[in-house]
Structures are given as C-alpha cells and as structure tokens.
Amino acid sequence: MDRPLLNRRLAEFGTTIFAEMSALAVRTGAINLGQGFPDTDGPEEVREAAVRALRDGRGNQYPPGPGIPELRTAVAAHQERFYGHLGVSCDPDTEVLVTAGATEAIAASLLALLEPGDEVIALEPYYDSYAACIAMAGGTRVPVTLRPDPESGSYALDLDELRDAVTDRTRLILLNTPHNPTGTVLTRDALAEVARLACERELLVITDEVYEHLVFEGEHLPLASFPGMRERTVTIGSAGKTFSFTGWKVGWVTATPELVGAVRSAKQFLTYVSAGPFQYAVAEALALPDSYYTGLRDDLRAKRDILATGLTDAGFQVFRPSGTYFITTDIRPLGFDDGFAFCRTLPERAGVVAIPNAVFYDHQDQGAPFVRFAFCKQEKTLLEAVTRLQRL
Ligand SMILES: *Cc1c(COP(=O)(O)O)cnc(C)c1O
C-alpha cells in the first residue's frame, strides 16, 4: 500500500504532546503540571446529582438532540445571571445547544460554517484542537500571533495584524478569551475592535469562553454582547473547567436560532447526543450560588500566585496570567531557548512536567522559548513542584 492510511488533512497532526509528556511523568514520577486537568473533583453535591440521575433513570437513554430542557434552561439562566447586564440573553428552546464538551462544539461549529477553502483566523498560540478541526472542515487557518511583552509581563493582540489578516476568503474568526495557553483576557477595547472588524467584513466569530469564570484581573466580556455581534457569534461554554469535571464532557453553544440550527446539523452526525445523566447534574451545577463561582476563582488566583512566585524565584520569566489556569514562562533567563528539549529533560532535572508552547504555534520559532505550567492542582502539589524547580 503506497497510499498512507491517514488522510492528507490530518497527516500533519501527530499524537498530541500531552500523551508523551503524561507518559514521561508516569515513568519518572515527576509532578505533572503539563495537562490542564484539576487533581480534585468538583462539588460533592454536583457529583451526587449525577448519581441521582443515574439511579432515577434520567438520561440513561438518548437525551433530546439539543440537550435536556433542564440544562438548556440552566444555560440560558446562567447567561442571564452573569451577562444579562450587558444585554446578553438566550432562548433555551432555540438558542442553546448542548454538546460533548467544548471540543465537540468547536468541531461542529467549524464543520457547519466552513466551505472548503474558507480562511479562519485564530489567535496563535492556539488550543490544540483548533488547527485539526479547521483542517477536517477543509478550511485554511490564518494565525494571528499574540505577542509577549516582557515589560508588562503579559501578551497582547496586535489589532493591526488582525485587521491585515482578513482577506476576501476569510469566513470567520476563532477567538478564545480567557486565552489558553497565555492567560490573556482580551480587553473591552480589543473585543470592541474585533467586533467592529467582524461587522465591517461580515465575518462570523466562534468564541471559546470555557474559562469565563477563571478571570483574576479584569473581567470577562462575552463577545456576543458587543454591538452587531449577536447575529454573527457562536459562543462556546463548558462545565469541564468551571466545575472541575473535565471527564464529563458537557459543553454548550449559545447563538441565534439560525446559527444554533447550523451547528446542530453537524453535531447530530458527530455524537448525536452524549452524557445523559451528567446533563442533569450540570443543570444543577450552573445554579450554584455566586459564592461557588467566586470561591473557585479566588482559590485558583491563590494557586496562580504560588506557582508564579515559585517560577520567578527559580529563574523563569513569568507571564502572569489574568485568566485560565495556565502560566506561560520564558526559559531564556535559565540559559535555554528550545522548549521541546527543555520539557523533555525537565522531569529528570527537576521532577516536574511542563508543555512546550511551540506545539500551539504554526510559527514554531515564535513559540520556541516558552513553556506552559498548569496550576489547577492541590496547594501541596504546587508547593512541592516549586521546591523542586529551585534546583534549576
Ligand atoms: C479545555 C479546553 C477546551 C475543551 O473543553 P471540553 O469541554 O473538555 O471539551 C476547549 N477550549 C479550550 C481553550 C480549552 O482549554
């Protein structure tokens, strides 16, 4: 067989780096700050809600295609509670679609909205499923690079660069705020400019807001709340990051009935439906009091501070994240400039696993000296990691 088994669209995407690094963590006994999953499960009462649903026979058979009404109502109520003052609202019957995590929401949105050859602008470095899903949909990705500013210790979107990236073939912008892996929370001004550009050039925007509740400085502003954006924005949320149940894979899309209908056309032939009993539990989780959401944020802010201080003391240049549960660092002050080589030897040298940011770039040279650490771990784990990193 001369012809490769894996098709040309996917050939460039090997096994994800997370598998390699997690295996390395297991082999060396290193602390895994690579993959971003919490090492403590979410609220007990939410777990109990899932058990109750299973026992009571709710969701054990195919739930409705758009998601159970209880969850769609809870998503709409959540949007109203947190963003109603910005003019955000959605109809639970026609403007909410439950998906198998944000991952399926991203895939279904791209598969639904792209024609082969359409260009998609995405902020680089990007979440690893974006490039593969754009490719599966036959689109062409056009990265716009977030630039690190060592002075401010943060990343910024160059709005001129974004504007220049739009061509006659651009169909949509795939946005992510708060941004994984850099921790950037796009400002009101930046979002207003993205909105203006989208309206002017008649672009759709898919906005991945799975870290909406993990904002430590500034505030999360849904892009859909900006003038002219309601009818062109697909907003994506997920229970995984907000409730620390990443294994449940319950996500959602909110958008106009027309956009939700389009995304559902693709979604129905991917998973059709998923996570029946968990949908009931997530409906309850979304209704948790504000103190749950602020508690989660305050807890992660404290963890960010532990890891950021430890990494700084160990000699890294730290880009202090305003949101998410990741910290991006520059390894050049430690005398290294290749994040891949650095991460492959870090478990041996310091007993910690991290991820080279270059995997999130098309322009790999731009990402070469940066390395990402996750801080959604127990405090004692972070303190031990910080102690170990002082060996460097
Ligand atoms: C974790 C993550 C996702 C995937 O969310 P799931 O609900 O687990 O599918 C999507 N986008 C970003 C930016 C993420 O960090």
Summarize the structure in words.
Helix content is 41%, strand content 17%. It is α/β, with parallel strands linked by helices. It folds into two domains: 8-42 and 291-390, Aspartate Aminotransferase, domain 1, CATH 3.90.1150; 44-288, Aspartate Aminotransferase, domain 2, CATH 3.40.640. The longest helix is centred in the C-terminal third of the chain and has 24 residues, at 290-313. 49% of the residues are buried. The protein binds pyridoxal-5'-phosphate. Pyridoxal-5'-phosphate is lined by residues 101-103, 127, 176, 180, 208, 210, 238, 240-241, 246, 249, 251.
The name of the CATH topology of the largest domain is Aspartate Aminotransferase, domain 2
The CATH architecture category of the largest domain equals 3-Layer(aba) Sandwich
Walk across the major sheet and give the strand order: 2-10-9-8-7-3-4
Q: Report the count of strand segments.
A: 15
In helices, the fraction of residues equals 40-55%
CATH class categorisation of the largest domain: Alpha Beta
Whole-Å distance between the termini? 49 Å
